[in-house]
């Protein structure tokens, strides 16, 4: 009997050793992959710095924004990065409030504090890829800003009203429209819209301007109650 117990104990120990070694192997490979990714990103960034004037500024901004998105940041929820070589995060409510809170002053830069994404009449259009909520093939959606207000006592936000419109039946051209209200945040460059008061809470929209300019955004159509993502579209300003 003791012999069987000894074998069971040895087998369990061997199993634990195997699991530990396998875990260490996976962890080491992940670290190597992350290190390689960081090297690749820095090499691409160095190549950008060497580019001449033949390359469009917009192209460079888009690619740099993509690199920044891949690298990510260590900011907490409701914080935004200051950018630059020295990492720093501040509250997204400190951006564009008239006081420099980032060490490099980026939170008050003209580009960061651009109001273009919330301009009245701006329309952001793209082809929606529905994941749920609508039984529909991909079709065009448009978010149009109809009103805005930037309050003097709360400058980090622009309060906006907008209309979401998309085709209900692609071939019959039936258009669904939804009145929305919300805000544009300078800190995280996000347009967040929910149903207008007094309207049926069907959809909301979140657009993140993460492509290096004010004219392109990654947008989601969401359920306003659960924030469940119904569809995605890459939006361009018109």
TrEMBL record:
Source taxon at top rank: Eukaryota
Domain Annelid erythrocruorin linker subunit C-terminal: 118-237
Signal peptide (from-to): none
Swiss-Prot/TrEMBL keywords: Disulfide bond
Encoding gene per record: HgBp
Name used for this protein in its record: Linker l1
InterPro entries reported for this sequence: Eryth_link_C, Eryth_link_C_sf, Extrac_hemoglob_link_heterodim, LDL_receptor-like_sf, LDLR_class-A_CS, LDrepeatLR_classA_rpt
Keyword Metal-binding carried by entry: no
Gene3D superfamilies, alphabetized: 2.40.128.620, 6.10.250.1520
Lineage per the UniProt record: Eukaryota, Metazoa, Spiralia, Lophotrochozoa, Annelida
SMART domains for this protein: LDLa (SM00192)
SUPFAM superfamilies reported for this sequence: Extracellular hemoglobin linker subunit, receptor domain, Heterotrimerisation domain of extracellular hemoglobin linker subunits, LDL receptor-like module
CDD domains: LDLa
